[in-house]
């Protein structure tokens, strides 16, 4: 028998998740059936949606993906790791994985950017936002990012090629946007929600497009915050806003992976992983990501 360790959520989170909300369970896996695969994890990803979906399931429930060994049906395996060459294997769950694919389809299919347009990205130093901004530059757009520290702002501008980036905690957002985007904003990729998003929307051009990937600003709130209504902006500026879940395009994932890996290999996209070591430290990585400690994709090396 093969033994597997996994994280089980035993109580609903209150605010930031805590170690006491989890239990590490060891279980014996049943014998493999014909056609099944025994999979051993080398890298695990931690993502904001693990927090957002917490109360969608009755407790206790297995935390998605937080398991060292698992059994899989090959028919249900989403994708096979592509040839990454000299790239880190962690890229397969980052830029060339679901987060990069979210950036690819969520931006290109919903925002439909045109060269010369102005694009704003919130959560721009995170796993998805950092890729969105780089894709926007590839498509010839003027790119503005918002992140949560001076160091992240510097990384976005100096390393990833954002035209301008700002620490939303220390600036007058409306003022810096008027200066950085005097002709208005055409596309907005939102990972954050809340007041920041409303301010950005107020400076969008007519027929602007908004892709809503997440709302991390309120994931840890027990009650959703009240914000200024946005319907007048939507009507007067004739904006289009659309939320998405990346599995919508699952039949096209190979297309995205091929293109993302190509951009990585030729240097048009840069990948950065925030690495935590050890299965026992998964919760530290998860909470750190929710607190904004990561640059790019937060991953755990088992």
Automatic annotation (TrEMBL):
Q: Name one GO biological process term.
A: prostaglandin metabolic process
Q: What is the protein name given in its UniProt record?
A: Prostaglandin reductase 1
| Molecular function via GO | 15-oxoprostaglandin 13-reductase [NAD(P)+] activity; 2-alkenal reductase [NAD(P)H] activity
UniProt enzyme class: oxidoreductase
Transmembrane region(s): none
Keyword hit for Transcription regulation = no
Source organism per UniProt: Euphydryas editha
Q: Where in the cell is it found?
A: Cytoplasm
State whether it acts alone or in a complex, and with which partners, per the record: Monomer or homodimer.
Q: Which reaction does it catalyse?
A: 13,14-dihydro-15-oxo-prostaglandin E1 + NADP(+) = 15-oxoprostaglandin E1 + NADPH + H(+); 20-hydroxy-leukotriene B4 + NADP(+) = 12-oxo-20-hydroxy-leukotriene B4 + NADPH + H(+); an n-alkanal + NADP(+) = an alk-2-enal + NADPH + H(+); pentan-2-one + NADP(+) = (E)-pent-3-en-2-one + NADPH + H(+)
Entry-linked Pfam families: ADH_N_2, ADH_zinc_N
Q: What is its EC number?
A: 1.3.1.48, 1.3.1.74
Record-annotated Enoyl reductase (ER) domain positions = 15-300
What GO cellular component entries does it have? cytoplasm
The entry sums up its family as follows: Belongs to the NADP-dependent oxidoreductase L4BD family.
Concerning InterPro entries, the annotation shows:
ADH-like_C (IPR013149), ADH_N_2 (IPR041694), ER (IPR020843), GroES-like_sf (IPR011032), MDR_fam (IPR045010), NAD(P)-bd_dom_sf (IPR036291), PTGR1 (IPR014190)
| Domain of life where this protein originates | Eukaryota
Record's keyword terms, sorted: Acetylation, Cytoplasm, Fatty acid metabolism, Hydroxylation, Lipid metabolism, NADP, Oxidoreductase, Phosphoprotein, Prostaglandin metabolism
């Amino acid at each position: 028998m093969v033994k597997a360790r996994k994280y089980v959520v035993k109580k609903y989170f209150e605010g930031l998740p805590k170690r006491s909300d989890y239990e590490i369970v060891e279980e014996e896996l049943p014998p493999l059936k014909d056609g099944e695969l025994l999979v051993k994890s080398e890298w695990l990803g931690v993502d904001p949606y693990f927090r957002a979906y917490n109360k969608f399931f009755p407790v206790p429930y297995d935390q998605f993906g937080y398991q060292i060994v698992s059994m899989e049906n090959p028919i249900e395996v989403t994708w096979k790791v592509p040839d990454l060459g000299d790239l880190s294997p962690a890229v397969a769950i980052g830029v060339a994985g679901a987060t990069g694919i979210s950036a690819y389809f969520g931006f290109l299919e919903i925002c439909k950017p045109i060269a010369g347009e102005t694009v704003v990205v919130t959560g721009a130093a995170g796993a998805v936002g950092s890729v969105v901004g780089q894709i926007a530059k590839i498509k010839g757009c003027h790119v503005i990012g918002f992140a949560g520290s001076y160091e992240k702002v510097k990384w976005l501008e100096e390393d990833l090629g954002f035209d301008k980036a700002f620490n939303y905690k220390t600036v007058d957002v409306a003022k810096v946007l008027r200066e950085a985007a005097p002709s208005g904003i055409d596309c907005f990729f939102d990972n954050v929600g809340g007041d920041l998003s409303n301010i950005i929307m107020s400076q969008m051009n007519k027929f602007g497009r908004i892709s809503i990937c997440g709302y991390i600003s309120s994931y840890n709130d027990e009650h959703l915050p009240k914000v200024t209504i946005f319907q007048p902006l939507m009507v007067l500026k004739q904006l289009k806003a659309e939320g998405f879940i990346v599995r919508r395009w699952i039949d096209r994932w190979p297309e995205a992976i091929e293109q993302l890996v190509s951009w990585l290999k030729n240097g048009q996209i840069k990948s950065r992983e925030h690495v935590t070591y050890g299965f026992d430290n998964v919760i530290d990585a998860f909470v750190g990501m929710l607190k904004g400690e990561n640059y790019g994709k937060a991953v755990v090396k088992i």
